[in-house]
C-alpha cells in the first residue's frame, strides 16, 4: 500500500471485515505509520469519531477496515473527508459510479480495486493533482477529466480502455504524467481541435493492443520527453514527426522489423530501446541522433554487428545486443571512434571470435560475451588493458585462458569456475585455490 511522503493524513478504505475493537474512539491497532480503525459508521457517529481521532492523533495514514455509508462511498462522503484529509486511497470500491463533487478539496484520490466501476464523474475541481484508478470497468477516459484543472498525474491501469482520443488529455493544462497500463487501447486518435496543445511530458502506454502507430499523433505534444510503448502488438510504426523534447523512447516487446530513423526528428533522444522485436539487422543512419547514450536491441534476430553503423553516436555510453544471432562483429573502415562508449553487451549470441580491430574506444570498461562460442580469449587487452571481459559459458581452451592468469587474478576476466556443487564439465586449472573451467 502506498504511503504518503508528507505527514498529510490519508484515509484508506478497505472492504475487509475487521473485528478488532475500537478502544475509546482511537486506533484499534497501530504501527508507526498507520492507525487501523475497524469500523466507521457514517450513518451514526462515524464522522465525529474520525474528527476526534484526527484531532488527538497524528499518524501519516489511517486505515478504515470497514466503512458504512448511507448512499455512496464517494460523493457526499468525499466532501466530508476532504475536511479532514488531503488524500484518500480506496483499496476496494464496490460501486458502479464514482462521484467527485464540485469543489472537493482532496489533492489525490487512488482507487486500487474497483471491479464494478464504470463511470467516474467529476465536478469543477481546482484541487485534485493526482488520480489513479486500477482494476475497473472504465472503458473510456472520463469526459469530466477536463473539470480537474490542477490534475498533474492521471493513471488508469488494468481497465478496458479501448481508445485514447488525445483530445481528452488536451484540456488539462497541468497534466504532465499519464499512465494507461494494461488496458486494451488499440487506437490513439490525434487531437481534432487544431488549437489543441498537450502538456503531457511522460506518457506510458505499455501492455496495450496497438498494432499500427503513426507517431505523428503526438505532433502537438511538444513537451513529450518520455514515451513508453512496450509490450503492445506493434507491427509497423511511422516515425515522421518532430518531437523536440523526446529523450526516451521504449518500444520493447513488439513485433517491429523496421524503424525509419531519419524521419524521426528527436534532437534530444537519449535512450532508444527496441529489444524483443523482430529486427534482423542493426539500424544504420543515426546521423542526427547525436545525443543518444543508450541503445538496446536485445532479443531480436540480428546476425551481424558493424561498429560503423553507430559511428555518428559520439555520446553513446552503452550498446546492448544480447540474445540475438550475431556471428560476426567488426568495424568497417575508417576507424570507428566512440569516445564515451563504456559498455558493449553481446551475451547470448553465436560468436566464435571477437576482436576490437578498427575501433577507438577510450572509455570502454565492460564487454560481455557470455553464452557465445568463443574458443580463445578475445584479443582486446592489448588495446584496452583496463576492460573487464565476461566470458561465462563459452568453450574456451585451457591453453588460451592460462595465458591470462593476471587478468583472471585482477577480475578483468570472468569465466566459469568450480563452486560448491558445480564441477567443471570438461577440464580445469588452478588459480590460487580456485578451479577455473576450460576446454581441452
Ligand atoms: C450504523 O448505524 C446505523 C444507525 O445508527 C445502524 O442502524 C446500523 O446498524 C449501523 N451499522 C453497523 C454495521 O454498525
Ligand atoms: C518476424 O518476421 C518474420 C519475417 O521476417 C515473420 O515470418 C515472423 O512471423 C515474424 N515474427 C513475429 C513474432 O512477428
Ligand atoms: C586484428 O588486428 C591484429 C593486429 O593488428 C591482426 O593481427 C589481426 O589479424 C586483425 N584481425 C582481423 C580479423 O582483422
Ligand atoms: C588503465 O588504468 C590505469 C590505472 O587506473 C591507468 O593509469 C591507465 O591510464 C589506464 N589505461 C588506459 C588505456 O585506460
UniProtKB/TrEMBL annotation:
Keyword presence, Cytoplasm: no
A Pfam family recorded for this sequence: LRR_8
SUPFAM superfamilies: L domain-like
Alphabetic keyword roster: Leucine-rich repeat, Repeat, Signal
Source taxon at top rank: Eukaryota
Signal peptide positions (record): 1-25
InterPro entries: Leu-rich_rpt, LRR_dom_sf
Keyword Nucleotidyltransferase attributed: no
Annotated PANTHER family: IG(IMMUNOGLOBULIN) AND LRR(LEUCINE RICH REPEAT) DOMAINS, LEUCINE RICH REPEAT CONTAINING 53
Protein name per UniProt: Leucine-rich repeat protein
Species annotation: Anopheles darlingi
Taxon lineage: Eukaryota, Metazoa, Ecdysozoa, Arthropoda, Hexapoda
Amino acid at each position: 500500500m502506498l504511503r504518503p511522503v508528507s505527514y498529510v493524513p490519508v484515509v484508506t478504505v478497505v472492504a475487509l471485515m475487521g473485528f478488532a475493537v475500537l478502544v475509546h474512539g482511537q486506533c484499534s491497532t497501530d504501527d508507526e505509520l498507520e492507525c487501523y480503525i475497524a469500523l466507521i459508521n457514517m450513518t451514526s457517529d462515524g464522522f465525529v469519531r474520525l474528527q476526534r481521532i484526527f484531532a488527538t492523533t497524528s499518524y501519516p495514514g489511517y486505515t478504515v477496515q470497514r466503512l458504512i455509508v448511507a448512499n455512496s462511498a464517494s460523493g457526499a462522503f468525499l466532501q466530508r473527508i476532504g475536511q479532514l484529509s488531503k488524500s484518500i486511497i480506496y483499496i476496494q470500491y464496490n460501486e458502479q459510479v464514482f462521484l467527485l463533487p464540485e469543489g472537493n478539496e482532496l489533492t489525490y484520490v487512488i482507487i486500487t480495486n474497483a471491479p464494478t466501476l464504470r463511470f467516474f464523474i467529476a465536478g469543477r475541481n481546482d484541487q485534485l493533482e493526482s488520480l489513479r484508478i486500477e482494476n475497473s470497468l472504465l472503458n473510456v477516459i472520463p469526459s469530466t477529466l477536463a473539470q480537474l484543472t490542477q490534475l498533474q498525474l492521471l493513471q488508469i491501469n488494468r481497465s478496458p480502455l479501448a481508445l485514447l482520443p488525445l483530445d481528452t488529455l488536451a484540456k488539462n493544462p497541468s497534466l504532465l504524467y499519464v499512465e494507461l497500463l494494461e488496458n486494451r487501447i488499440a487506437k490513439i486518435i490525434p487531437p481534432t481541435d487544431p488549437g489543441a496543445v498537450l502538456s503531457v511530458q511522460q506518457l506510458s502506454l505499455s501492455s496495450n493492443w496497438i498494432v499500427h502507430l503513426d507517431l505523428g499523433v503526438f505532433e502537438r505534444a511538444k513537451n513529450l520527453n518520455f514515451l513508453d510503448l512496450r509490450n503492445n502488438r506493434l507491427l509497423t510504426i511511422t516515425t515522421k514527426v518532430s518531437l523536440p523534447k523526446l529523450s526516451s523512447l521504449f518500444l520493447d516487446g513488439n513485433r517491429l522489423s523496421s524503424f525509419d530513423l531519419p524521419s524521426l526528428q528527436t534532437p534530444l533522444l537519449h535512450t532508444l530501446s527496441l529489444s524483443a522485436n523482430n529486427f534482423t539487422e542493426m539500424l544504420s543512419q543515426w546521423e542526427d541522433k547525436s545525443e543518444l547514450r543508450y541503445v538496446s536491441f536485445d532479443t531480436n534476430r540480428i546476425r551481424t554487428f558493424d561498429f560503423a553503423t553507430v559511428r555518428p553516436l559520439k555520446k553513446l555510453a552503452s550498446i546492448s545486443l544480447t540474445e540475438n544471432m550475431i556471428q560476426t562483429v567488426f568495424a568497417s573502415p575508417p576507424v570507428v571512434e566512440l569516445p564515451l562508449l563504456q559498455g558493449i553487451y553481446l551475451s547470448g549470441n553465436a560468436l566464435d571470435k571477437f576482436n576490437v580491430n578498427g575501433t577507438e574506444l577510450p572509455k570502454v570498461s565492460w564487454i560481455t560475451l557470455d553464452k557465445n562460442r568463443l574458443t580463445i580469449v578475445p584479443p582486446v587487452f592489448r588495446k584496452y588493458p583496463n576492460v573487464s571481459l565476461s566470458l561465462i559459458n563459452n568453450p574456451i581452451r585451457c591453453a588460451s585462458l592460462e595465458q591470462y592468469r593476471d587478468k583472471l587474478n585482477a577480475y578483468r576476466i570472468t569465466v566459469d569456475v568450480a563452486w560448491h556443487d558445480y564441477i567443471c564439465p570438461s577440464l580445469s586449472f588452478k588459480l590460487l585455490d580456485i578451479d577455473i573451467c576450460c576446454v581441452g
